[in-house]
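Hi L.,

You mentioned the student needs an example of a multi-chain input paired with its predicted structure. This one should do, with 214 residues in total across all chains.
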Amino acid sequence: MSEAIQPDVTIDSRGATCPGPLMDLIGKVKKADPGTVFELQTTDSSSKNDVPEWLEKAGHELLDTVEHQEEGYWSIYIEKTE
Amino acid sequence: MPGYAIVLASGKLERLQAVGNIASIAAASEIPVDVFATMDGLEAFDKDVIEGMDFEMGPVGRAMLEAEDMDMALFDENFARAKELGPISLYACELSMDALDKDLDDYADVFDDVLGVAGFLGHAEDKQVMFV
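Structure written out for the whole complex:
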């Protein structure tokens, strides 16, 4: 259940267009220790689809994507691996 | 992944944004990128042009700038951020600068150096070249 995910770091990229949210995420992920869990908040639907593509290439784990319909944004949960 | 060598010769906002976005994400993903800004593509980095948002643009660029719920970082900001995250270098075309009697101080602070064509081809020889 997504509600159970407790992120170590929350990145609020709401309002920013591509590639802002992904750039925000990459910058933070690079500096973090393995095992760190992130919540990336984005209103950009292209980022919602593009972030998982990057995760696959970079080898980090996509934990969950939760849509907050009323507020109009997505939360993408990520865990940094090695 | 040997990386990309991008010749940026257009001053059109949509093309500048597309190059800024692709190059930034590539570099942030540890893919080497060299950008050679030349002709109209270099003039788009002129500080006065950026300040005045004096770009050639089409409907997509206008829509992105006018949308109140979209916070679009301009290409020069994306390049500056990418340089903090990964292997990206930007070079300004010497010929274009000489033609207008300018130096690097006239442009946004993203350039690593000034290069001629032979210099850029040296950087590009092991990379995939994109011409925009």
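You could point out the following to them. The helical segments of chain B are 13-28, 40-43, 47-51, 59-66, 75-85, 94-100, 117-124. Chain B touches chain A at residues 21, 24-25, 28-29, 64, 69-73, 78, 81-82, 84-85 (CB under 8 Å).

Best wishes,
N.
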